[in-house]
Amino acid sequence: xxxxxxxxxxxxxxxADAEVVSHKLMLRAxxxxxxxxxxxxxxxxxxxxxxxxxxIVREEMNRAGAVELCMPIVQPAELWQETGRxxxxxxxxxxxxxxxxxxxxxxxxxxxVVTDIARQELHSYKQLPKNFYQIQTKFRDERRPRxxxxxxxxxxxxxxxxxxxxxxxxxxxxxxxxxxYRRIFDRFGLRYRAVAADSGAIGGDLSEEFQVIAxxxxxxxxxxxxxxxxxxxxxxxxxxxxxxxxxxxxPLQKVPTPGKSTCAEVAELLGVPLASTVKSLVLATDRTSxxxxxxxxxxxLLLLRGDHDMNEVKVGKVPGLDQGFRFATQSEIEAHFGxxxxxxxxxxxxxxxxxxxxxxxxxxxxxxCGANEEDHHLRGVNWVRDLPEPDAVADLRNVVAGDRSPxxxxxxxxxxxxxxxxxxxxGTKYSRAMNATFLDENGKPRHFEMGCYGIGITRLPAAAIExxxxxxxxxxxxxxxxxxxxxxxxxxxxSEAVRAAAEKLYADLxxxxxxxxxxxxxxxPGAMFADWELIGVPHRIVLSERGxxxxxxxxxxxxxxxxxxxxxxxxxxxxxxxxxx
Amino acid sequence: xxxxxxxxxxxxxxxADAEVVSHKLMLRAxxxxxxxxxxxxxxxxxxxxxxxxxxIVREEMNRAGAVELCMPIVQPAELWQETGRxxxxxxxxxxxxxxxxxxxxxxxxxxxVVTDIARQELHSYKQLPKNFYQIQTKFRDERRPRxxxxxxxxxxxxxxxxxxxxxxxxxxxxxxxxxxYRRIFDRFGLRYRAVAADSGAIGGDLSEEFQVIAxxxxxxxxxxxxxxxxxxxxxxxxxxxxxxxxxxxxPLQKVPTPGKSTCAEVAELLGVPLASTVKSLVLATDRTSxxxxxxxxxxxLLLLRGDHDMNEVKVGKVPGLDQGFRFATQSEIEAHFGxxxxxxxxxxxxxxxxxxxxxxxxxxxxxxCGANEEDHHLRGVNWVRDLPEPDAVADLRNVVAGDRSPxxxxxxxxxxxxxxxxxxxxGTKYSRAMNATFLDENGKPRHFEMGCYGIGITRLPAAAIExxxxxxxxxxxxxxxxxxxxxxxxxxxxSEAVRAAAEKLYADLxxxxxxxxxxxxxxxPGAMFADWELIGVPHRIVLSERGxxxxxxxxxxxxxxxxxxxxxxxxxxxxxxxxxx
Lengths: 581, 581
Known about the structure:
2 copies of one chain form a homodimer. By secondary structure, chain A is of the alpha+beta class. Chain A has 16 helices and 31 strands. Chain A has 3 domains: about 200 residues, Bira Bifunctional Protein, Domain 2 (BirA Bifunctional Protein, domain 2); about 140 residues, Alpha-Beta Complex (YbaK protein), CATH 3.90.960; about 100 residues, Anticodon-binding domain (Rossmann fold). The interface between A and B is large, with 47 and 47 residues.
């Protein structure tokens, strides 16, 4: 490609509403252009990156035996009503009425349509396993679209769906996809981690997220440097402390803590570690009639160590809380605790409350909690002596760095990641809802065992940039760079020698199958270099009249700070040696 | 590709609602699968065809210097309000409200968005000309979607938009696209015609449709076998007859024609050629106030020869009718003609009516028309003697086969076509509406001169099938076949010799870069052959134990009725000789 025949549009400054570096750089480098909130034009430079991402995904999906098809973007509501998602999904599901008033949705994902295809097309166990995938535009009407392609409303996703005859087959399909994903992410040339994710009630451990490591990532990912344990924060288990609960050493004592309503304030006031305080979180569960009226409400008190954070996914698995819970209202709290939030605790309750202690809290002694009296806390609190054992003990919290690894092989560390892929065992959730069956060896209808597998095609470039950039701009891995090599001739418009050499080098690199762009725009060197450093093309070759007199060009990798001189005759070999390095 | 790793799904019978042969065959061959009215899944076999169409279009667009980008499917209404199309377009424009109640549309085309990009990105004449294109999903909420991908609601279109500094530049961009389109359609391997189309008020002659010739086509296309004249029916000019109007030879006479309200019935009753009758069509034009109230209405009488059809596009260019017209109501007709339709004519009007005669009628003598009296016609009607010359004479009719070619080089012929591409000079219609300007050499802002260029990516395969099929199924041109070659081994599951030879041949063809599928499904030969004839793969190689004993295979082109024996050692060369043939 020659720059004069392409479209290059760079900006000195990013628009003010771009918050994260990838968003800023994608706008500045002219990869994308905002059309509306969370909706972007993929500009020529950005589309090249997206197409390279797609090509790698497609190759590896095909290699793994998946078959590509393409499902419609506009899908009839009937199918979404079969699974209940038409009503269950919130306003992220973009709903449309057509000219005849019929309901449609813009696909956010395609479980319903692919299951509809399977129930019509996959009649027999002999046709299984089958894995259908598409690379297709999706829409999710995010409440707060932000960060450019990171959390857009319209985006491109690769979504694959496997159909198997039994759970063992589904597990094999799942593993084949997890393997393919490793190959895909290896090929992208990004640092990533495959982490265990929560699979809800269905899948046991068959759910993994593929996270691109980046300090700016939205997700906390947990891993053990001493082993291959890795999980996302929702999933990572906090083991119970080792050893028994220590004996009480302090008397129970009510202390005034005027205006100190947080554990941190209380710990500071009392001069004790935050880890000796316990926070009280009050939840409620409602029992409802078939008509949806509330029959009765149970109030729950969750106790976590002051320095720990609640993990909602884990709380949602506590028996009694696993059918849905909410935070208690102020009036419910006052009725049960006789006190407003900030000074709550498990001792001296006004009405029955179920107490669930985090594993850590259950083994604490001499702890501090609210006294259920405004401006007062209790210290020296001890189980059994001061209050009964909790109704339940569970893992309620997020792990923190230094926690023991669940596999017992070391201590957990935490880093940030950006989720760009997900493999998930679905079981028969959709096949049952849509009565999608095949005939087994005995001629009996059975529900498909399904898995689903996504890659955020348009999010991937944003994640790659979050991981790979510097103050000058983007640094693309070779595999997904818009161009692998840029030729920057200096003074091409003045020097016939430079022009001829540049054109010849360009032709040679094209002939060698290298994805090269020749910058024939006649920009000044400074502006030209700044453009390509911003755009992030990994390999740059500079031709100048002076260099050519010595039959030399300058080569510089985007990650390096200085250029090296290379004989013009050797540049192709030099480049090939550096590419993919 | 091996069939066992792909997805093949053929049907003996097409669903009852499939009317045209391409729709039937696409369903039967498993290329597409209906999801909703006018909305189809592109199944794996069909997607391969679509991707090949896309690849050819993309290569030729790039070669012509167009730059690919990708615009959003969901587009904000604001831009569509700037051009007025948000209100002007009918319900084909699918309108959406997002979660915040903001208006969006699903793109049916992208003039607004691309013009918005241009006005932000193309600042200077130095950046021009520029041609942006995308290959992207579109949606038009057709009132009556039908014929499968021929007139679907969701479809894939390649849409390109050129931006130029002046009309001469725009004309050059237009011609470059028209050339690229010829290359594209040549490469598809289809018989097609580029025909002049009506460009409305803007573009002079700069509008051409690319029509795939097919007896079942919806469009009539007009051409001159003796020259390169070709136009669509809307555009093709009917020349005035040569020579002067003949003299009157018959007296004016009122004849009873009870119950005979059509020209054909009257001609039959009177025993005269249909071409001696004149039909009367009554139109109305309303003058309205700014508030939209009708101030007054003009009634028009159009006179066409009884065997000719009115051409609405041409009528819409008659001065006075060129701001919009409608058919007159029954009561308007009765008020002006004193008679109900079926017996109308230009003689003896009750109120003033503007009379427009087709060029042909203006030169007729001794003609027949309604008497403005129920059950009566006039015969022997002659201009000047019996009624004044018409208020206007114009080309009002569709041409018919045998008419003189407008280029004077022969007689017109008519065939049917399917429109799959369109190149169109837009002028400044959109750039003015959206105030999209660039700075010219003098630093003055000027509106872009634009062109737009579409190819119906998903309609193309349907058109190809309408043109290329037989009673056994589809016959793909090599360039867009889902697979170019199919290897059909007979008894592969029993014979190790067949299996080994098939696998080796498959590997050899893959290595030669041939897009081949090996049918390793172990189907019976009859079913296997029927599948591939239905699917339409152009080149078939059959391997059998008997043939292999003589080191021979059978080759058959899909268009041929018999196979030829080819030495196994020669089959690659034989195939290469036949491919693209």
